[in-house]
Amino acid sequence: MDSEPQGEAGRAPGDSGSLRGAVPHSCWCVRRRTPSQDESPSLSPRGEAQGQQPPQLEVDQRAWQRLEQFILGQLEELKQQLELQEKELGHLRLGVGATDSEKRVQYLTLENKALKQSLSLTRDLLLHWGPGPLSRAPQEEAEALAELQGRLQEAQDTTEALRVQLGAQEMQLQGLRGALQQLQQETEQNCRRELQQMHGQLAGLRARMASLRQGCGDLRGLVSTFTQSCQGSLSEARGQVSWALGALSAGGAGTKFQEAKQGPLARCPGRLLELKGNIRVLCRLRPGTPSSLVSLEPGPGGTVTTCYRGHQRRFRLDWVFPPHASQEEVFRELESAVLSCLGGYSVCIFTYGQTGTGKTYSMEGPPEDPGIAPRALQSLFREMGTGGQHRVTLSMVEIYNEAVRDLLAPGPPQRLAVRQGPAGQGGIQVAGLTHWEVPNLESLHQMLSLGRGNRATAATVMNQHSSRSHALVTLTLRTASPLRGPATSGTLHLVDLAGSERAWKAGAASTSWEDRDGPQRLREARTINRSLLALGGVMTALRARRPHVPFRDSQLTRLLQPALGPGATAVLLLQISTRPEDLGETVCSLKFAERVGQVELGPARPRRAPRSGTPSSLSTETPLTGTPCTPTPSPGSPPSPGLDSGSSSALSPPEELPS
What we know:
This protein is of the alpha/beta class. The protein folds into two domains: 3-33 and 57-193; 251-641, Kinesin motor domain (Kinesin). It is built from 16 helices and 18 strands. The strands form three sheets. Strands 1, 3, 6, 7, 8, 9, 10, 11, 12, 15, 16, 17 and 18 form a 13-stranded mixed sheet that branches. The chain has a three-stranded antiparallel sheet with strand order 2-4-5, covered by helices on one side. Helix 2 (19-38) packs parallel to helix 5 (98-129).
C-alpha cells in the first residue's frame, strides 16, 4: 500500500507545471480515502485498532508530507505564473498592440479561475483528511491542520494580490497607451510646425537670393557704365589735348587758343558733377538769434541737429552753410553745376523751405548782394565771352493755384496748357509759351525783372511779400565751336518754390487781414501744400526706383519731370530757420531734404543740339517748349523795363549756328 501512494505523490510535484496535472492528483487523494475505510471493517473498535496504530500513523504522516509538498509546489507555480505575468506586462509597456493585450488579459483571467478551483479542491482535501487516522494525536493534527489552513489562506491572499496587481497593471498599461498616443500627436504637430517654419525660411532665403542677384546685376551695370564713362572721359581728354596742341601749333590766333582753352572749362564741371552725385542737398540757415534747439556742423558733409518735442535727431547733408555765410560762398558751391550747362548738361537748382527763411533772397538777392540767379547768369556769359558761338533763350512761368502762367508774355500773364510731347520726342510741352532770345546779360536781367514783377505775391503772417506761387526760370544754352566738336544744348532751371509751411502757420486760414482775401489766401496755401506733397511723392518714388513715378499729380511735378529724369542733375538748396516757433516746420523741411538726398538719377549725360538751328527745333530739346523765340514783344503790349520801343536789336531773332 505504501509504494503506490509514494509513486503517485512523487509524480505530483513533477506534474505541477500546469493545473491540468494538479487537479487529477487531488481527485486521486479523495478516491484513495474511500477504499481505506472499507478494507478494515473489523478495526472499528478503538481497542482493536490500537495494535496497528504505529504503522498507520506513519502512513498518515507520509500522506501529509506528500500533501504538503503538493501544496508547496502549487504555491511555487503561482509565483512563477506571477513572474510570467509581470514579464508580459513589461512587454505590453514597450508597445504591444491593444488586441493582443486584451487576449492576454482574458487568458490570465481564466488561469486565475483555474488556480482558484485548485485551491478549493485543496481545501476540500484538508477537510476530508482532517478527522482521519490522526485522531490519536489530536493536538499534532490540529497544529498541522492550522498550518495548512494558514498556508492555504496565504495562497488565497497571494492570488488576490496578484489579481489586484494585474488590474493595476492593466490600468497602467491603458495610461501608457494614452500617453504614447498624446506623445505621437505632439510630435506630429511639432514636426508640422517646424516644417512650416522651414518653408518660411526657405521662401525668405529665396527672396533674399533674388534680391542679391538683382543687386549683383545692378552692380555689374554700374561697373559697365563706369568703365564706359572712364573710357569716354579718357577719349575726350585726349581729344582736348589734341585740340590744344593744334591751336598752339596754329600760332598767332589768340581767339583759337581761347576757344581751345574754353573747351575743357565747359566740360570739366560736368565730370565733377558726375563724381559728386546727381541730386545734392545744400542747407542754409537764416541769420537770427542762436537757438539751443538747432545746432549744426557746417561744411561739406555737415549735420543739423534738432531737439523737437523732447526727441533729438541729426540730419546729414551734402553741405551745410552757417548763418553768416555770404551769397558768394553759396554760389561758389553751385558754380560747377551752372557751368556744366555749356557742355550740354541739364541742371536744375531749386530752393525749398517755409516762408521767411530766405529762399527768394538766396535765389535772387538785392542788387548790392545778388543771389544765385544773377551770379549764375553772369558766370555763364563770362564763360561764353571767351570764344565760340552761343545762343541763349529764356522762358519764365509760374504755377498759381495749379494754373501755369507765362510771366514773359507781351500782354497780361496768360494761362497755358501743359501736355505730353509728341511720340518719339518725349518731354513736356507748354502750348503758347514765349521764348525770348537774349544776346547779352543786360537784356537777360531786364526780362527777369519783368517776370518777377508779374509774379503773384500776398501778405501773410510769415511775410508781408510772400510768394503765392512757384516760379520756374529756364535758360537754354546752345553752344557751337569747331574746335570742340558737335554743338551741344544745355538747360538751366532755376526754381523758386513757394513756402512749405501749413496754412494755419502762415496765417492764410485767418480772416484778420481782409475778409474778402481770407478765402483766397486759404485756397492758395492748400494748393501750394498739395503741389509740394506731390513733389515729395515723386522724390519717394525716385528714391525707391519704382517703375511708375507720379509726375502727373500736379502741374509742378509735370514741369519738373525733364529736370528730374534720367541723366539730369538737380541741386536742392534748403532754407531753414532757428527760431523756436519755426522748429516744427524746420524738422519737416529737413526730413524732406533727407529723402531728396537719397535719390539717384543716374550718371549725368550731355545732349547734342539738333542740326537745325530754328528755334522750334531747339525748343523740343528743352523741358518747357512752346512757340518759337519772339524777337520783339507783340504790338500794343507794354515794353520791358529798361527797354524802349526801339530796342528791338536787344531782342533779335536767332541766327543759324553751325552743327
